[in-house]
Amino acid sequence: MIDFSLTEEQQALIDTARRFAKERIIPIAAACDHESRFPMDVFKEAWEIGLVNPTCPVEYGGAGMGELDNTLIIEELAYGCSGITTSMLANTLALTPVKLAGNEEQKRKYLGMLTSEPVMASYATSEPDAGSDVAGLKTRYTRHGDDYVLNGQKCWITNASYAQFYVIFATENPELRHKGIAAFIVDRDTPGLRVGKKEDKLGQRASDTAQIFLEDVKVPKANLLAPAGSGFKVAMETFNQTRPDIGAVATGLMRRCLEESVAYAKERKAFGQPIANHQLVQWMLAEMAIRVEATRLLTHKGAWSLDRGAREPVVSSISKAYGADSAMQTAIDAVQVFGGNGYVKEYPVEKLMRDAKVLQIYEGTSQIQRIVIARQLLA
Ligand SMILES: Cc1cc2nc3c(=O)[nH]c(=O)nc-3n(C[C@H](O)[C@H](O)[C@H](O)COP(=O)(O)OP(=O)(O)OC[C@H]3O[C@@H](n4cnc5c(N)ncnc54)[C@H](O)[C@@H]3O)c2cc1C
Known about the structure:
four-stranded antiparallel beta sheet; Butyryl-CoA Dehydrogenase, subunit A, domain 3; four-stranded mixed beta sheet; alpha+beta; 3 domains; binds flavin-adenine dinucleotide
């Protein structure tokens, strides 16, 4: 039976996240964007009230929430600021491969680390010459006795400047492509690991994005998360599980666009009446509402499928692709509703437009989602 109602617990979760976004995120979001600063104090507070790492299993100190509950939280946080939300979500991106592929010892140590103190973790597949083409990554690992040694470079890594550990994908031989890729958990203080320059981004400027350099980084055997042959699968399954999260970020961002636009359209007058009376403005508002509703439903379906243990990568990809593209169009329309005021930093919508763009890029571009979907259709 299909049921769209929320439980009392889910409504309480939404209320908590909504209050947190209103009281702790919205008041500082513009300044964090302007200064390109991640608010660690806000992250710590969010962690304390259970809004960070919600899907971490109970056995390792987490709340053990399902993906649907996770998307409810994310939509509310992203309404406040999708940049700050992305940094909180990067922990989920890093803990998911540990949850999927980690042995008991690894889960106790690294999931336990995330739940016992407000620390960050990063997930690193991307490199200067391998973003969409994950199987083309070149960071190498070699065996040295019982240890592994990593050499290479990662880029665009969310939270790299702050992370306590990194899930790093490396290959034994780039010519093997996906078959050669393994995954490792690398502690921040490992000699040879250096965090490089922080990116000066167009949008989501409150989230930290930086490079990682690996020079003869010795990783103990105990930190091999997935051997060659299964590392690539772990990377892909991680994306499958986290793509609805991006749909939820898109929903929150669009809801903010819609609410800001409705309020402005009722206030702003042109031709002697509120612009809300003009049908072409109404059309933009209605289109925004359609996209919010459709993206939320797709996201919830993707999350619900994951919670049922059903493997439906197409649904995950559709929620991500439709959500990201809808968020971009909705943010452009919000700037349009605001006219000249939409183009300046005094009003909130120019930030929403800059923030929306990366949703079409990270965790698989909009083109890559189409490839995943088409491949399934044609299989
Ligand atoms: C703010 C931010 C945060 C990020 N966080 C992380 C992170 O935490 N961890 C991580 O590992 N990575 C992260 N990334 C990297 C992100 O996943 C990559 O940027 C993304 O996968 C695209 O890779 P690329 O930039 O190399 O673009 P490219 O792969 O070079 O693509 C360039 C263009 O070509 C298109 N294209 C490429 N191949 C095809 C094809 N076969 N068919 C059609 N079109 C194609 C793409 O869609 C895109 O439009 C982040 C990026 C950003 C901007």
